[in-house]
Design a protein that fits this description.
The chain has 7 helices and no strands. The protein is an all-alpha fold. Among the domains are: 30 residues; 57 residues, no CATH class; 36 residues. The protein is rod-shaped, with a radius of gyration of 37 Å. GO terms for molecular function: DNA binding; RNA binding. Keywords: Cytoplasm, DNA-binding, Nucleus, RNA-binding, rRNA processing. Belongs to the C1D family.
């Protein structure tokens, strides 16, 4: 009669498999415990999606192993479509995480043409030539203003202006550049 004893290598592998399965059962119990459900609620949406995606991958891998142990081919089973679906969601989660990690764009930007239209309409009595100069500036065209730093002015001793003082100074300079010398000195009301 043939020797029906199980080889030692197979016995070792079976005992290692039993240990791995018991560890897996312990981890699954931890994942399905009420404490785990409460901690999942505290995760960010991206982390929560990653968590559920990992569970889906693990469940699919375990089911594929089960199919193989029963002699079935996972490639010919319906689980293959589930694996593809999990792969699609994996790509979506990765894209969402990449978007959340990317540096954010500036929340506001100055629309220069719109700002110049406001300025053009805010300054009364502009001639067509002056309006044309403002439009050229807004298009980035030829600039009629040149800014030259006064060599006698020390930038460290320059006093800081309040917003209203800075706006008044800007409008006064703009008026000098846009409005020719006229009998009245400042057509803009004081702020």
């Amino acid at each position: 009669m043939a020797d029906l004893a199980i080889p030692a290598v197979v016995q070792r592998n079976v005992s290692q498999l039993e240990i791995a399965v018991s560890d897996l059962q312990r981890h699954i119990r931890l994942l399905t415990s009420p404490e785990s459900r409460e901690s999942i609620q505290l995760l960010s949406p991206a982390d929560r999606a990653s968590y559920f995606l990992a569970i889906a991958k693990a469940a699919n891998a375990l089911f594929c192993l089960h199919l193989r142990t029963t002699g079935q081919d996972p490639e010919k089973h319906g689980v293959k479509s589930e694996l593809e679906r999990v792969s699609v969601y994996n790509d979506k989660v990765a894209a969402a995480i990449d978007r959340s990690m990317a540096p954010s764009r500036p929340t506001s930007a100055i629309n220069v043409p719109a700002a110049n239209r406001f300025i053009e309409h805010a300054i009364p009595d502009l001639t067509e030539e002056q309006k044309q100069k403002v439009r050229e500036i807004s298009r980035g065209g030829k600039r009629s203003m040149t800014w030259v730093r006064n060599p006698n002015e020390d930038s460290q001793t320059k006093k800081k202006l309040s917003v209203s003082e800075a706006a008044a100074a800007f409008l006064a300079e703009a008026t000098k550049d846009l409005v020719p010398t006229a009998p009245r000195q400042n057509p803009l009301p004081d702020i």
